[in-house]
Every structure is written in C-alpha cells, then in structure tokens.
Amino acid sequence: MDNQTIITAAALILKDPVIKSVTIAAGGTVSTILNKSHYRDIAIFLPANWVTSVITLKGCDTATGTFNPIVFSDVSAVTIASVAASKVIVLSDLAKDAIAAVPFIQLVSTTTQTDTDKVITIVLKR
C-alpha cells in the first residue's frame, strides 16, 4: 500500500459520521452528556415525542465536572430557536464556532419534556 492510499483511507475514516444519542428523562429539561471531543459538525435529530421548546447548551471541559451555560462573547446564550418534534437541526457556523472547543455538552430544553424519556440522536462529523 503506497502513502497516497494510506492518506486517502485516513481522510475517509476521519470524515465518516459518528452517531450518538443523549436522553432527556421524562419530567426533565437537561440531557445526558454528549462527548463531542474532536468533532465540529453536529446534527440534532429530535424525536417524534419531543415537546416544542427552545434549546440551549451547557458545556464542560470534563465529563464529570460542572456544566455551565455556553455563551457568546457578548454573554448571550447559544440558543436553538423553539423547535417542534421530528426536526433535524444543523447548527449555524456561529453556533459551531461557539462550541468548537467545548468537549462535553448537554442540551437544555426550556420546556419540561413530559410523559416519556426523549432520546435525541446526534450525528457528529470532524
């Protein structure tokens, strides 16, 4: 195998999407922790049982630390506008830049997610 083949194969591996999920428990507002270390592009797939809500993000440098709101330099929250169930959210460049250096995040619903757990699929790409 020549060097060009190895480089091409490595490039393909690095671009493959990784599929993860987080859960907001019934009656809750904060998701489980998403480890997005080494990933920049994020797509959030809201489930059919999602209760319409604004979504904000919390972040931490470790999985076991204190998660704090992620804000822009003007101290306004990184926010995803009120969104209904069964939607796919792709973060804007501004939002991606804001969370790029934050390895661990949580999604925060401004509305309590009632009835059943909400399992949110996340697709990550480098």
Keywords, please?
alpha+beta; 126 residues; six-stranded antiparallel sheet; four-stranded antiparallel sheet; Jelly Rolls
Overall description:
This protein is of the alpha+beta class. The protein has helices at residues 3-15, 93-99; strands at 18-24, 28-30, 34-35, 41-45, 53-60, 68-69, 79-83, 88-90, 104-113, 118-125. It has one domain: Jelly Rolls, CATH 2.60.120. A hairpin with a 7-residue loop joins strand 5 (53-60) and strand 6 (68-69).
SSE map:
Layout: H1 3-15, E1 18-24, E2 28-30, E3 34-35, E4 41-45, E5 53-60, E6 68-69, E7 79-83, E8 88-90, H2 93-99, E9 104-113, E10 118-125
Antiparallel strand pairs: 1-10, 2-9, 3-9, 4-8, 4-10, 5-6, 5-7, 5-9
Question: How is this structure best summarized?
Answer:
This protein has 126 residues and is of the alpha+beta class.
Order of helices and strands: HEEEEEEEEHEE
Count, helices: 2
Look at the structure and give the CATH class: Mainly Beta
Architecture per CATH nomenclature, i.e. the level-2 architecture: Sandwich
| Number of DSSP-assigned strands | 10
Report the uncertain regions. Answer: 9-13
User: Taking all residues together, what is the mean pLDDT?
Assistant: 88
User: How is the main sheet built?
Assistant: 6 strands, antiparallel
> How many structural domains?
1
Radius of gyration: 16 Å
Portion of residues in beta strands equals 35-45%
Shape: globular
Which secondary-structure class do the elements indicate?
Answer: alpha+beta
Give the termini separation: 25 Å
Helix content: 10-25%
CATH topology: Jelly Rolls
